[in-house]
Amino acid sequence: MRIFVEHLEFVGHHGVYEEERREGRRFAADLSVDVNRPPGAHTDDIDDTLDYRALAEVILEVGEGPSRHLIERLASEMLDQLFEEYSAIRSAELTLRKYATGVPGAPESVGITVTRQR
Fold it and tell me: Average pLDDT per run of 10 along the chain, which is 118 residues long?
């Protein structure tokens, strides 16, 4: 079973440049995790599944937390925490977008996609 959270937005103070860390920038995350079929599919009980709100909370906690220079490090720490807290996760894919200013060509966002398996 795949559980996902799409376009989760937060403001983080991450970046190589001092003004990014000082002023903060908008970010958006798309997370998708594969889990063994949770018992919740049979019980209809939220306590028997991996709640997508809990996944979102981890992303926000790390994203709104201490400053990191690289988006790669930020994404890796998000996945580290998810895998540590939720043993039901078999694999995950995280796309992290930064609404960066001053990038040549004025893209809407820049970012990375990281996949990980247990």
Answer: 96 94 96 82 79 96 97 98 95 95 90 97
